[in-house]
Structures are given as C-alpha cells and as structure tokens.
Amino acid sequence: MTATESDQAGAPPAVQTVRGPVPVTELGRVFMHEHVFVLNEEIRQNYADWDEDEQVGAAAAKLSALAGRGVATIADPTVVGIGRNIPRVQRVAARTGINIIVATGLYTYNDIPLYFRYRGPDSGADGRDPMTDLFTADITEGIANTGVKAAFLKCCIEEEGLTPGVERVMRAVAGAHVITGAPVMVHTHPASQSGLEALRVLGEEGADLSRVLMGHSGDTDDLDYLTRLADAGCLLGMDRFGLDILLPFERRVAAVAALAARGYADRMVLSHDASCHIDWFPAGLIDAFAPNWHLEHLLDEVLPALREQGVSEQQVEEMLVANPRRYFTPAGARTAT
Question: 130-137: long-range contacts at Cβ-Cβ below 8 A with a sequence spacing of 24 or more?
Fold first, then answer.
C-alpha cells in the first residue's frame, strides 16, 4: 500500500487527507506548504494560555475563508518536532470543506530526539532505522490510532548543514519513501544551497528525485541554484510568500516569473508557509515584521503581480493544480486531464 492509491481498477489515484482519500483529480487548487498549527507542545501543555475550542474555531474560519476563494486543498507538513497533533487537526477539518493533507517525518536542524539516541539506525525491522518504520506505519496504517494516514514525508537541512542528526532523519525519510512511494518535502536553507546536499543524500538512498519538493526555494532569487535543483527533477517550493523579511516581495515574484519564462512553471509550487496559529513568536511580532504572512496573500497580491510580469493563467494553474497533482500521483499512474 502506498500514500496514494486507487479504490478500483481504472479509477484515478487517491491521496489521503484528514477526512479520508480524495482522488488527485479533485484536489483543485493546492497551497503546497501551509500549517494549521505550529506549536511547542510541551510549552503549550505546561505554560501557555491556550483555549482549545477558540483556536480550533479560529483555524477553521481561516481555512473556510480560503476555501471560499477557490483553494480546495492545503498540504500541511507539520511533523514531529513542531507539534503535530492529528486529533486537533481533525476537529478543524470537520468544520471546514478544505482538504488537509498531512505528513510524517521529523523536524530538526541538528540533533534527533533523545528517544532515538539508544534506538540506533539499524535497530528497526530487518535492520532498518526505527524512524523509517514509524514513518512507514504513519503512511500505511495511520497516525496514532486516528485513522488518518500521512501522504508525504518531511525532513530538514538548514543553515547548520548535514549534521549527524539531520543526515539520519533524511536517510530514514528516504527509506520510507522507497518503501511506500510517498513523496518527500525537504525544508531547505537556500542561502547555503542546502538543497544540493539534500539531493545528494536522497539520491544515495534511491529516492525518485521527481517526487522530491525542495521547500523554501523561494527564499532566493539565485536562478543558477534554482535551475540546478529543477534540472535534477525536483519541484521548487516557492512557498514563503509574505515573509518579505527573508526576501522582498518584488524579488520573490521576479524569481518565479523569470523561471516561468525559462520554461520551469512545471517545476514550481506556490504557498506561504503560514500557520493558522504559530507559537514561535510573541504576540504582535508577525504583524510588525511580516504583515503579509497570511493564507490569502497569494490571492490578494502575489498572483496579480505574477500576471503583471507575464506569467500566464496556464502557468498559474500548473503551479497551483497540475504540479501538486503530479506530486501526489504515484510514478507510472495515469490521471484524467
């Protein structure tokens, strides 16, 4: 069983969502990197002022507003390390019509959790990393007895580079990808060109690079670097629109337009990496330093600016519809056009 599957012969493949499988042909417009919640769960449980019902309701309202504007699906790469809580996301999903696709994996820029310190990389079934077994089970069996199956994998390689912990997680993610066929998303740090190192490691583990999405590629307008990644087969996550503090709006838009003009619209996806709620920042800080970092910025400002720079409607639909559909379709499967 893989992350995407057909219910019957001849039917289009289906991708798992929080509410169950959805045909890839019905995903519609997809924002490929958004979060429902990003939380430090131990801080939340012990110290935070948190109203569960209020936060679930606020998240559902934001996603319902997005759905009302024609976005049918979000891919939520919230994994272990940044507060994945599937029952909470299920409550949100039950109150909004948007499809929420969830991930498995582990989020770290450096060390692995102490849980894995004495569970070594060859201590799982058949000598595999036990992380690989956990990630595989999330995809094939479901997450934490919720009945919700992950549909893609997530790992990171940040400014710290390929630390031993980062490498172990990346190879474990690649192992689960090879077993299940589920696609991979990598959080990268374009300023250090860490995506190239990710390509090397994933390739060594036998990953299908056409099923790899290099997240946060839009944090740079170094077109030579970006085309190297795209030419290797992977998708580019132009997915931090609104975080102008990392790269100004005009340069983000210009980079997408330039790549589209070079014929790379089929290698890009668009989103914000925004959250319905994130607890990383004190109250008011996001509004002060990133006022456009919200789920509707693409619709309000980014798409009009791309069109002004010559990006066609067909290319917009490639980035929002066709490319996500291809990402979630198993290699060799056919879908209706």
Answer: 131/106, 131/168, 131/169, 131/172, 131/173, 132/172, 132/173, 132/175, 132/176, 132/179, 134/104, 135/104, 135/105, 135/172, 135/173, 135/176, 136/175, 136/176, 136/179, 136/180
